[in-house]
Protein 1
Amino acid sequence: MHKPGKSAYPVLAILAFMVLAPMIALLTVPGTSFIESESLAFWKSAYLRRVLIFSLWQAFLSTVLSISLALIVARAFARHGKFPYRSFILKLFGLPLVVPAVVAVFGIVSVFGSGGWIPLGRSLYGLNGILLAHIFFNLPLAVRLLLPAWQSIPKQHWKLAQQLGLNSWQQWKYLEWPALRENLPGVGVLVFMLCLTSFAVVLTLGGGPKSTTLEVAIYQSLRFDFEPSQAVVLAVLQFSLCAIVAMFSFRLQKLPEVEITSSSLQCPVDLKTLALNSIILLVAVTYVAMPILAMLVDALNGPILQVLMNPKLWRSAAFSLIIGLSAAMLSVLAAWLILQSSSDLYYIKQKRKAGYLEMVGSIVYVVPPLVIGTGLFVLIAPRFNVFDWAIPIVILVNAMMGLPFAIRSLGPTMRQNKMRYQRLCESLNLKGWDRFKTIDWPPLRKPIGLAMALVTALAMGDLGVIALFGTPETTTLPLLLYHQLSAYLMSEAAVTAAFLLGFCLLVFWLLEGLIGGGGDA
Amino acid sequence: MSRITQALIAVSCLLQFVNAYAGKQTLTIYTYDSFTSDWGPGPLVKKAFEEQCNCTLEFVGLEDGVALLSRLKLEAANTKADIVLGIDTNLTAEARATGLFEAHLISANNTTLPTVWNDQYFLPYDYGYFAFVYNKELLSNPPTSLKELVENADAPNILIQDPRTSTPGLGMLLWMKKVYGDDVSIAWKKLSKKIVTVSKGWSEAYGLFLKGEAPMVLSYTTSPAYHIIAEDDQRFAAASFVEGHYQQIEVAGLVASSKQKKLGREFLQFMMSEKFQSIIPTTNWMYPAALAPTKMPPAFKGLIKPSRSLLFDDSEIAANRKLWVNEWLEAMAE
Amino acid sequence: MVEMLSISQLSFSYTDTENNSVMPMSFDLQAERGEILSLIGPSGSGKTSLLNLIAGFNQASDGKILLDDKEIQQFAPAQRPVSMLFQSHNLFPHLDVFTNIALGIRPSLKLSNEEQQAVGEALVTLGLEGFNKRKPGQLSGGQQQRVAIARALVRQHEILLLDEPFAALGPAMRTELIEVLKELVSRRKMIALMVSHQPTDALLASKRTAFIDNGGVTSIQETADLLNNRQRKEILNYLGPK
């Protein structure tokens, strides 16, 4: 009997430490304890109830909308292999992830605001705005993560579908949906987590305090009210909610019952579907491109040279890149170690346990970086010089936040490799590095390239933890952008934002090209 | 990567060593990051002070005044800060209550504040008033009072910030409270019809305003000065309200656990000097706390002067802030 | 009218995306009703391409495919009188046996009583009674291929294309299934083309066998003669010395 690898456990132990230690540290900070009467009133308040309901409701709606639209778009993409600039568009689809929240808000407003291209007026502010923004962030991500599912459908099934004359709906039902069931719950949970923890976008486009998420309440407790223990309990609450949703969706997951083949898609396309697909793709691309385009227009009206000549911009870019790349490497390594174990468990048919491993690795995402960062600060500050620790901690926290993306990207291929080659490798006594190099690496190149690109971009666009330390001399691009914004330099900030996007696109292109070996996902 | 980290750490250690060898002291100031950014007063202040002190000034730039205070609470007696610069009068009572500050022992009689300053722990370095900024070309007759804005159904729409996450947002909350007292909930309900959105921070709201999302945005009376001086753009003005404007005074204090109190006091003294004060107007876009009006940039003279400056006692804020925020939340929830 | 499948100068350019090479192909052959014509030849010679052309998965650049003198190339795959069986992945793993077969009649699965009966009969014909609720994963390889044949049967299409359908099965099972097929093809007057790498399969199934090499049919003979044809170098190379 094949013994499942244990590599996930040290990683999960580190993750647990990284989450629990800061929380426990925060609980020891003097402040109101969460069982005192004043605090009890908070837990019973209508405010908290409203926040809870709203957080879940907007996250649920955003997820359902983003995922359903992503399915339509991904399907059109999968069936339209020769859509012009396909691989460029897929790279463009990696961009919304890096757009700092405030810039995205400006982009969305440039398109849908009262002076925008498609003016929605005041009705933009409220659930509409939140959904528009969340679809902008998550639709492209979901498309990228779902697209590989189509490649896992056996070639023969497409031929059968053609021969049996299955119509579009029947193809969906018999071929595509079963193939998607492996990935969909995971991608859904990821999008749900992203929407649940959304902060500035929800607050600003939400039109008022009615649109308050738990993340806002956590920020409020930790910062404005300085009640660390209340923040910790809220964070635990958010984590538990997410865990419940994850477990629930996990039940919907169904792994393919046959060995997955990787095939170049050969599905029948008639002229009518071709036209329809083209329209769907055009609409999706336009939707994602519009806010980005609006940012570029703002940038073109800004003092481009002046911003680009500032050496600080380049220092920040280099610094962001170092942080991003390091976080991505750590994240991919951690994901790989977790998936090593979980795919072993899949292999010996302990699917549930395997799923839990991956889930635990993923949902640390919902623990707010503010809570982790502040807690780590409490741990480190009395003993060491915090500034020496700032960079490693920023990298570590960003790696944690990137983990669900890395797990999503690598998971399916890691499982396939295990199912297909495990016995062969055992019989050939292929192990360790040799096996990785010759067997696992070639099919993993593309997903690793994607994961590296996603996590790097995510970390590069992140403002979170670095701002917490206030380390002198270290500025990331998003931080520079915020400095410009708070110094009234809106047009400079627009140029910096465009630079950040262009820089990320370049990094995407390089990482996916160098590691993934060209082509698209 | 770890090598790069190590290298960075090594370099920073080396720098500290070099400083120590040169016999230079380092004064660490915790402040907010827009103070230390390239466009803020930080770089100029550092240069000016280092010229006279034979020391190194090190800024630690945190998110905002609130982040400053919570950082201080977290670090308590272990803090590396010698000076904390950038909390405002809404937070001074809480800051004093931490017991981490020491009396500054510096005379504050040269201040040019509209009120007399007699705080023993904190010294003011600048101040300003919250106000609604508008574009004169797009809005010809702005409301002339907070009451008009609240009660006149035809009053223009506004953008404000959230008091839970931003200083101007809290300022607005206190402004309303000062004007409406116990009736503030009803007033907020009326006002909420005109609020396009409540943003996380000042940047979001101001950016949306410049994009034309609303005719007026909550900012400072001094904001138009930026557009006049830096952009030569005369279109923006702040609406003057007859009830008066809520005031914000930004202060600095000496940390009790500092090992360099002499140097720290030297800095506080410097902070009240003309050198420091004349940097403030065009970098922090606020009124300096101790600068003769004749030394002010001309553009500031054209700004509106509030007839009354409104300010709660800091202990009153400390006691009621949560209560008032909840009151606001309830009023806005409907 | 001649009751047969007649393929003439059916041309196609096979593009190998891996090394960017193009292989021109052109096929000529005839097969009669009731016959299983075996196709043998080296890998990459064009056997599967020929089946794909007949099924309509690939479009020929030139040439004719006539069934009983009628051209079928203008039809989409679903409209052609063709059923195809692959070596694997013939069944949808998440659907039960009955549904997998029923799909062959009506993808909407809204079957009339007669059609349901036809599925039942096909199950009986192939010795699959009582298996209708099973999932493919619960069947042996031979049983899975029987289900696939049953589906071809209910479709009642005249041309049956078999792409190494028995490659994964043991000798006893192959013999058994070939007998089943032979009986069905001759009883229903179908025309079957079977790609195989096993000379024994060809001997068992086919009176005649075509040898395919380098994108064309190089000879069609009585199976036994072809397998003993030592003059043709390509056949010798393929079969190896005795």
Protein 2
Amino acid sequence: MIRIEPRQHRSRTMDLGIPVLSAVIALAFAAIPLMAAGANPITAYGEMVKGVFGSVFALSEMLTRATPLIFTGLAAALAFRAKLWNIGAEGQLYLGAMAAVAVGAGWLDLPGLVLVPLIVILGAAAGAAGMAVPTYLKSRFGADEVVTTLLLNFIILIFLQMMLEGPLKDPMGLGWPQSAPILDQGMLPPLMDRMRVHSGLILALVLAAVAQFMLARSVWGFRLRAVGENAAAARHAGINVKRSLFGVAIISGGLAGLAGVSEVAGLKGYLTADLSPGFGYTGIVVAMLAGLSPVGVVIAALFIASVFVGADSMSRAMGVSSFLADLVVSMSLLCVLVGGFIARYRIIRSGTGRAAS
Amino acid sequence: MTDTTVLRLNGLSKRFGPVVANDDVSLSLARGEVLALLGENGAGKTTLMNMLFGHYLPDAGTVEVADEAGHLAPLPLGHPQAALAAGVGMVHQHFTLAENLNALDNITLGAEPLRAIRRDRRGARARIEAIMAHSGLKAPLNVPVGRLSVGERQRVEILKALYRDARILVLDEPTAVLTPQEADTLFASIKAMTTEGLSVIFISHKLHEVLAFSDRIAVLRHGRKVGEMATSEADEAAIARMMVGADTPRIARSAMAPGAPVLHLQGVSVAGRSQRDSLKQADLTVHAHEILGVAGISGNGQSALANVISGLSVPTAGHIRVDGSEIPRPSPARMVRAGVGRIPEDRHHEGIVGAMSVAENMVIERLDDPQVQSRGLLRREAIATHAEELARAYDVRGPGVTAPARLLSGGNIQKLILARVFERAPRLILANQPTRGLDMGAAAEVGRRLLEARERGAGIVLISEDLDEILGLADRVVVIRDGQIVETGSHDRERIGLMMAGEAA
């Protein structure tokens, strides 16, 4: 017989060990389909490592891929800390991207020192607005934000397609549903010559550090943690729960919007409806792997980006499908969820008359 | 009552890490006997019963239970199923019922054969009804348990045990959640069942009910059995001394003239979700140097009154004045700023954020205070030092001020809340069931602090379902009934009791 008891203490080693172990187990499990596809897993993982760390270019690619994941990971982590389940980072990302091209693609011809901050701020504001709506519906009518944020993703995507066929359509785009490119001076400057990694990464890292600091050290972070851990007690203590939720909603949506800004103004230059291969959703995995810690988000985003970039490179080298990356990412989420359960509870077997205690 | 022993615990010991929860405890229980297990919080009562029931595996010792023929046989330890099969039933303090199922399903849940294709509901119902008729424990069977009162839920729990043919019933603090009337009914049923051969162990720290309803008393302190006696030979002071290890300090109170009003409710109405949490045109005045006791049967508007005073609900009509100035739109933050200290009824749920540290919980009501923050950043060292001082002053014991508050025991959580409230020298204190579930030492501490605040000039609203507590502490007693507040103008127990029941105005 098996019994499950909550643990009195959560050990710190477990908090740190579980995400790492989950990542390793996910990679180990992924070896099975790799072998089924006829590849030697060790060579395959070797190719993956080479594809990420083998050259400056590879490293730059990985960092480029990690950048939006840090933004969306932070968006999810902060909201989840307050038990506000923002599943809408994908839509908020596109809102941010739309705002960026709306302002930056020639509408305002300003010097870069003005235009870049403007694009960043308006992009964040658009994302924030995208999260403010479901949060209002939640606090006013009790609408479940899991449902509203998730469904808004699809509404925003359709809205995006409409805009790309209409007002935002590039007149020089040969009929493709894409926006006009952002002005050169409006682009986030690259970090290295002839590499794709751009200064969006710096912004992401700075924001992660700020979030980490604010969460632990500020009154704002105190309120957010109190609301997330026990909203009834927070309310009783005089914390304005609705205002706290709204505050974190705005920040979470804004961070997701910045992911869109960073992709469109840091990397692609113009907006299409396939800008994001699901960065918003992957951000949730990143946040969970990170144990909802902002610094952890950076590490988890680097890991997930490595898996994606490495799997791409491995599939080119070995002819194995790069869907393997999705598999590893999903497996690591499952492992982290199971691991989180093990961290909170212990399983007691009492099969032979003596219970292990 | 016969002398046949139905249960014997031999030298049970249990440690949790460095903490000795039980040390060599032996007990025996006779057929038809009611044994009261007394002790302060943390004395090891619940641990002992959990070992009996198989939730914990003892480090040493054995348990013997009589079989149907009356022969004592050792019980395999660590197996709730074995305890159930041997006829041991346990009713926990926190009920283990599925709220969306009705009583019938709750009672039969888990007791029916797993592989049966259809449940024999009719047979089950007939059996339960027979048990109800026999024991006098009545509960509606068809209503979802979530809609039953606390007393009814407890009866369902007991019926659940009886349905499983329990011959030994363990009740963990059965009256903690009951009104005096419900408690009396419960004990009457228990008495009736013991004449049929049921044996009962009940855990309590209320002396008067132990003296009134048990045959024998065993006292635990620090995990050891420190005394055992027949109830007929017991006297209250001696038992209290045994429990706490010293004489309980008599609460000394001096006569005081009430000062200016600190709280004035005038025609305050609250439309709650149900009758139970509504207030109707309530008038109430509390003066400085005065403890106002609010007596009443549970569910007559106490929580609505508490919510108004703590700022959680906004009245639909009426005026609230604190210290002479009107509070137009009450909120918890405004009430705190107006000088109201609040001791909530449910300390785990509303009193603390369990995952946050003890120190953080101590400052959670004063985040705007420059001692706690400067320019939006927490002054962590100041908070920690402050918490150390408060913990010392209010004797909050636990693994330290940086540890999560949920690791504290119930009594220490209440001390944390007391520290947080009293530290600010509030003008008005709302104490809602402040000693519920606390041991005698901690309860006495609460009473002492309340009297100290009264001395200082605070006005105190003491809401309690324990009439003894109100009569012991309050200068003036009002009764809350059906959302209305009535002055009693007396300390007469019988008169107040009648007013609580609504039989006199």
